[in-house]
Design a protein that fits this description.
The complex is a heterodimer of chains A (about 350) and B (about 325). In chain A, about 75% of the residues lie in helices and about 0% in strands. The radius of gyration of chain A is 25 Å and the shape is globular. Chain A has 2 domains: about 80 residues, no CATH class; about 190 residues, Orthogonal Bundle (MetI-like fold), CATH 1.10.3720. Chain A has 14 helices and no strands. Chain B is α/β, with parallel strands linked by helices. Chain B has a single domain, classed as P-loop containing nucleotide triphosphate hydrolases (Rossmann fold, 3-Layer(aba) Sandwich), CATH 3.40.50.300. Helices cover about 30% and strands about 25% of the residues of chain B. In chain B, strand 9 and strand 10 form a beta hairpin. The chains are: A mainly alpha (about 350), B alpha/beta (about 325). The interface between A and B is medium-sized, with 22 and 33 residues.
């Protein structure tokens, strides 16, 4: 691989990403503000109960709060402040968890989400693609039929429904696994063996529900693509030349993997956002769960904060994939030279 | 005439596509010999069974194509082997690449796109149990012979132009010195200049003894004239006429051949005088071909016997075979 075109290629991608990032964060700023409702209303009504409904005190409180969150200023000024602060790494103060900082709320839940979704996504991708390719290689045998049928069924099951079935079966009926949370209530996260085992028990069901439901789609896609590639001209010509079947299969596999990598990247990018519904179903303390709470309380700074991080991670994943892609497929790397 | 050693022969071959409800008789009772050191051009319109014939020659028989009847022989080390009695897998393992190689219709996309060609050669060496450096140096030589810089081997196929790709494909196809090379519509995607270069390369391969004989499948009569020693005209799954190339162009016997040649522009004055005509009608459906001679519904010379009996392929003049009652005793 020559170094210079690669560098140029990556630089171009980077500039492109920077521009789209600005656009995306702008949208994230605008969208929650379009949702009808006043984020401070909930807080003020709580306050009014405590403060024995002293209208003057409440009005004063509202004024301070509006200043604090900056919602009294024109929207453009708010936007400018948001960008400036975000650049400094300050994502603001949460409204629903006032006065805690958004960043302090997000950071502790990120590991939980990553630990759940990163392995689940990768395992589903690897298993699905392997099964799909195997089915294509042994086309029209019982392996192929078995994989295809299972994949079709599994991919159509919503993962949260699968999660609920799991909870009912293994949690409630059989009582083998805990039904909610990432660890038992009352335990404090630590690096001890006991905690690890406890967390693992909580981990199995959400992990399995995501892997199982995501795997089917990968397998179906991979199977079709490998079959397609095996019928292509280069596969035929290789056969006519007496190339071994295994090698031709490797070619087909390699060329089929390219689109699958794009899919994986898009998936990995959204990992930081958590799996919203899975986390709700299992009451799992991840970013998805946090986002759900923020959305229901119209916590602008929190919504923005989560998305700023999420979008950045999607872009990072995309960027890495471009890099990977250029490395695997010479047509992309060299095609943009001129 | 040069030596007439037979390299390949097929006898009364019927190869049908057996679909769920219908059977397509793509090659129906065809016998053919290919001699050593010759280029044989197989000509016919689309759907006449040319490609199926090439699949039979290489025993590339895959469902739904089925060899219903007939035998196929290939001479290997001086002896005929009945390759039709072997399975596709067996033929592939024993002969493909080494004895028979097919250059498929879409030769443009015939090379594995995401690896360098040198890597491809290495994989080929591995598959055949040959030392890879030996095959690589052979590939370099072969590239030079087809007029490509050996440095191109270190490139990806998509970096080559169309004509270069085609030559690279031929270089790689002949790398194991197959005795029989089958090229299927190789020139249809090329401009005239590249066509000419390509044909030259192909002839050179034969002259140098890298390949013994070439089967050239095309619907382009002009290219066949430039390269072939003999021409086989196929119509609706059957051979209409086999003849040395000059004689068939000067004096086509079968009415279909006449029609075919009349529909092509040629520079010769005597042919130019004839002008251009077309064959009326369309080729028949091979699921249910016409009775008797399959060409009779479109033939202006059709007689009663043509509707009832299938004309056999008979030698009318020296080296010329034709399947037409016009040249036979039975005509009355």
């Amino acid at each position: 691989m020559t170094f210079k075109p690669m560098l140029k290629f990556l630089l171009r991608r980077f500039v492109f990403l920077l521009v789209t990032y600005i656009v995306a964060t702008t949208i994230v700023f605008i969208l929650p503000r379009i949702i009808p409702g006043n984020p401070l209303a909930q807080m003020l009504s709580n306050l009014s109960r405590v403060a024995q409904a002293n209208p003057e005190a409440i009005r004063a409180a509202e004024k301070t709060l509006m200043e604090e969150f900056g919602v009294d200023k024109p929207i453009l000024v708010q936007y400018g402040q948001f960008i400036l602060k975000a650049l400094k790494g300050d994502l603001g103060t949460s409204i629903s968890y006032y006065p805690r900082k958004v960043i302090d709320l997000i950071v502790p839940v990120i590991p939980w989400t990553l630990v759940l979704l990163l392995p689940a996504t990768l395992v589903a991708w690897i298993l699905g693609n392997t099964l799909g390719a195997m089915a294509a290689y042994r086309r029209n045998t019982w392996i192929d039929k078995g994989v295809l049928t299972a994949a079709l069924i599994v991919s159509q099951i919503p993962y949260y429904w699968l999660g609920m079935i799991f909870i009912f079966l293994f949690g409630v009926k059989l009582g083998w696994l805990p039904v909610q949370g990432a660890y038992s209530q009352g335990t404090i996260p630590s690096f001890s063996w006991e905690f690890f085992v406890d967390a693992l028990k909580h981990y199995i069901m959400p992990f399995a529900s995501i892997v199982l439901s995501a795997m089917g789609g990968w397998a179906i896609g991979m199977r079709v693509m490998v079959i397609n590639e095996l019928g292509s001209d280069y596969a035929l010509f290789s056969e006519y030349l007496g190339m071994k079947d295994k090698r031709i299969f490797k070619y087909a596999f390699r060329n089929s993997l390219l689109p699958q990598i794009t899919g994986l990247a898009l998936n990995l990018g959204t990992v930081l956002g958590g799996s919203l519904i899975t986390e709700i179903v299992f009451n799992y303390p991840g970013t998805g769960y946090l986002l759900f709470k923020a959305l229901t309380t119209l916590d602008y700074p929190m919504i923005q904060g989560i998305f700023v991080i999420l979008i950045a991670s999607v872009y990072l994943a995309n960027f890495l994939v471009d890099f990977l892609y250029a490395w695997i497929d010479p047509r992309i790397r060299l095609g943009q030279e001129e | 005439m040069k030596n007439r050693e037979i390299l390949f022969k097929m006898e009364n071959v019927k190869a049908y596509y057996k679909l769920e409800e219908v059977t397509v008789k793509a090659v129906d009772d065809v016998s053919l010999e290919i001699f050593e050191d010759e280029v044989i051009g197989i000509v016919g319109e689309s759907g006449s069974g040319k490609t199926t014939l090439s699949n039979v020659i290489s025993m590339n028989i895959m469902k739904p194509l089925t060899l219903v009847e007939g035998k196929v022989f290939l001479k290997i080390n001086g002896e005929f082997e009945e390759i039709s009695s072997m399975s596709r897998e067996e033929v592939k393992k024993k002969f493909w690449g080494k004895e028979i190689t097919i250059v498929p219709q879409a030769a443009m996309n015939a090379l594995m796109p995401t690896i360098k060609m040198s890597k491809y050669i290495e994989h080929l060496a591995q598959s055949h149990g040959i030392d890879k450096n030996e095959l690589l140096s052979k590939a370099e030589k072969r590239f030079e012979e087809v007029g490509l810089d050996p440095l191109w081997l270190k490139r990806y196929p998509f970096e080559l132009s169309g004509g270069m790709k085609q030559r690279a494909v031929i270089a790689i196809a002949t790398i194991l010195n197959p005795v029989l090379l089958i090229v299927d519509e190789p020139t249809s995607a090329l401009d005239v200049v590249n066509q000419k270069i390509f044909l030259k390369v192909l002839m050179q391969m034969k002259k140098m003894g890298i390949v013994k004989s070439i089967v050239f499948i095309t619907h382009d009569i002009a290219t066949v004239r430039q390269i072939a020693d003999r021409m086989v005209v196929m119509y609706a799954g059957k051979i209409a006429e086999i003849s040395p190339i000059e004689e068939i162009v000067q004096k086509p016997l079968h009415p279909y051949t006449q029609g075919l040649l009349n529909s092509v522009l040629t520079p010769e004055p005597e042919i130019r005088k004839r002008g251009i005509t077309t064959i009326p009608g369309a080729p028949p459906n091979l699921v249910n071909p016409p009775s008797g001679c399959r060409f009779h519904p479109r033939c202006s010379y059709a007689m009663d016997i043509c509707k009832e009996k299938v004309p056999p392929l008979k030698e009318i003049e020296k080296n010329r075979k034709v399947a037409c009652f016009l040249y036979m005793e039975e005509r009355k």
